[in-house]
Amino acid sequence: MGKGKALTVLAVIAAAVFALIYFGIGLTSDLGKDTAQVSTEDAAKKLDSIYKKINVTAAEPIKGQIDLDPVSIGDALPDISKYAISVEKTTGSYVEIFSSTEKSGTGVDGWLNEVATAFNTSNIQVNGQPVSVRIRNIASGTATDYIRSGKYVPDAFTPSNELWGEMVKAEGVKTEQVAKRLVGNVPGIVISKAKHEAMIEKYGAVNIKTVTDAIADNELAMGYTDPFASSTGLNFLVTALSTFDSNDLLGGKAVQGFERFQANVPFTASTTLQMRDAAKTGMLDAFVLEYQTFANAADLQGGYVFTPFGARHDSPLYALGELTQEKRQILKAFAEFVVQEKYQKLASDNGFNGLENYVSELPEVNGNVLAAAQKLWKDKKDGSKPVAAVFVADVSGSMAGEPLNRLKESLLNGQKYLGRSNSIGFISYSQDVTIHVPIGVYDTNQQSMFVGAVNSLQAAGGTATFDAIAVAVKMLQEEMAANPNVKPLIFVLSDGETRDGHSLHDVRGIIEGFKIPIYTIGYNADIKALENISSINEAASINADTEDVVYKIGNLLNVQM
Questions:
Q1: Stretch 217-230: mean pLDDT, rounded?
Q2: Of 53, 89, 126, 510, which has the fewest Cβ atoms less than 10 A away?
Q3: Nearest-CA neighbor of 231 among 297, 317, 141, 307?
Q4: Calpha distance 195→282 (Å, rounded)
Q5: What is the residue-averaged pLDDT of the chain?
Q6: Paired sense of beta strands 268-269 and 433-441, if any
Q7: What backbone torsions phi and psi does residue 301 show, to the nearest 5 degrees?
């Protein structure tokens, strides 16, 4: 062997030995660690590397004037025109009806629209005059907010269930039930077949009692929807409370049972879509859904079992306020028209009227008790784990003018939902990132600095969304090191795709590693990148505009904070 070849061989051997030593050290350092630990450490290294390349400045603290007035739902709600009329009136004599979305939407969710259209073309007369109905498509919880606040009160209201009618009545709105049922539906818990079989084996049955027991024992990962906005979520809340103490839903026994159960709920979904997406990833064994939706969901058939619970969702019809005799007669005629056999068959074809033998497990609940149950949920939903959240606001040039003004308004209104036991931080970004309020407990001083920072925002420059997210993660990393028991969250408000700084590809591993849910609000735009960010850790992405951003952000913070 020549001298040159010998040196080459030696160099290769040396390189191999070095590689073995290097990778051996790396492998040894990971021994005894689970995958999550390794993933978090890798994410931390990536974060440190990226953070060094971001231009981050700390703003001088600015204190603002705190508004101690309670949240005004009426002020936050957009003009009612934001919610579409799905069937328009055809005559001068008519009634307007707020209808829940599962029956006044499109496709299989448009049953009531078809029936209302048929009613309007059938020459129905009252006092010798042709009459018609106008249907407005609006979720039951949102409709209740309009009615209770007095922002807009229609002639009639057909929510998914009677719970909302009780809440409207408790607010002092004159309410008369015209029909107990327009169409049949049932709420239920959708459980994977494997988990359902395991529960049968252990508990002997699957019902609301055994489900809450399994969740409390950390044997079932289940999600449910926001009880302030969702009919199924509200129904599940009060039904769960009744399993702990059917005689006193708000008593000590019920509260203790709820706290033990809620401690093992992975998250409360802002939307049904968010919850179903989480189930697809395997994060949830079970979730709540209406039977009509379940019956029409091909992806759920075969792999899941539907277990009904609580009060039925039979779409009652209520007359609201001081209606004329003519309007009352129109409502009565419409209620009678709807229940005709051919229209009920149409409903059955669309997935309604299933599980007709199911009888409500929940006795009538007073509206004041329902409102108190919502407040209990708000106060107790996070148990002993306070939230640590960083708000991330886009102040790029495109946000100048009305967009930034509405963003400020939405944050100033939304901050009233932030609990005093939680910790809050606030940053803004254009092409660079500014830390306005470091994370701190949301006491009066922190609130004042948050308000001052929001009021001081000015729009200019580019859009480095992912740089800002990296900074928010860094802040929460340090907070979690100091307070390991906190529940970290990030809220991002942006109006456009990122044009500066790092990309989603650069930060995806960081987001996945730290497992921090990132809730995104796309402002006047449907931003696919923000949706992708939220989906990484099962958070919600909301598309808002200048009309409804204040209301939507308020709802989001009410659920998550």
A1: 91
A2: 53
A3: 141
A4: 12
A5: 88
A6: unpaired
A7: -75, 135
Per-residue pLDDT, 526: 61
* Residue among 182, 173, 131 at smallest CA distance from 154: 173
Q: Is the pLDDT of residue 555 over 50?
A: yes
**pLDDT at res. 341:** 97
Q: Of all residues in the chain, what percent carry a pLDDT higher than 90?
A: 64
What is the mean pLDDT of the segment spanning 309-313?
Answer: 96
User: Which DSSP string do the residues of 104-123 spell out, in sequence order?
Assistant: HSSGGG-HHHHHHHHHHTTT
Read off the pLDDT of residues 378-436 as tens digits, 9 standing for 90 and up.
888 877 688 999 999 999 998 888 888 888 888 888 888 887 889 999 999 999 999 99
Residue type, 372: A
Q: How many helices (H) and strands (E) does the chain have?
A: 22, 19
Calculate helix-pair angle for 208-216, 193-203, nearest 10 degrees. 90
CA-to-CA distance for 391 and 422, rounded, in angstroms? 13
Give the tokens for residue 117.
């259209």
Q: How far apart are CA 355 and CA 186, in angstroms?
A: 7
CA distances (Å), origin 517, targets 414, 474, 511: 18, 14, 8
Residues shown for the chain: 561
Q: d(Cα 436, Cα 351) in Å, to the nearest integer? A: 51
Q: Which two tokens stand for residue 95?
A: 């009634």
Distance CA 475, CA 469 (A): 10
Q: Is 182 helix (H, G, I), strand (E, B) or coil?
A: coil
Amino acid at 368: N
Pairwise CA distance, residues 214 & 203, whole Å: 9
- CA trace torsion 254, 261, 368, 357 (10° rounding): -100
36's CB contacts (< 8 A; 6+ apart) are none
Q: pLDDT per residue over 331-350, tens digit each?
A: 999 999 999 999 999 999 99
Query: How many CA within 13 A on the CB side of residue 218?
Result: 3
Q: What integer is the mean pLDDT of 359-364? A: 88
What is the bridge-based pairing of β-strands 541-544 and 268-269? unpaired
Tokens of 197: 């079989």
CB 515 within 8 A of CB 42: no
d(CA 311, CA 380): 23
Angle at 54 between CA 52 and CA 55, to 5 degrees: 115
Query: What are phi and psi for residue 178, nearest 5 degrees?
Result: -80, -40
Band (pLDDT 50/70/90 cuts) for residue 507 is: very high
The predicted pLDDT at position 466 comes to: 93
- Tell me how far the alpha carbon of residue 252 is from its chain's centroid: 28
| Whether pLDDT at 112 is above 50 | yes
Nearest CA-CA partner of 493 in 451, 471, 522, 535: 522
For residues 19-30, one letter each, b for 16 or more C-beta atoms within 10 angstroms of the residue's C-beta and e for the rest, the string is eeeeeeeeeeee
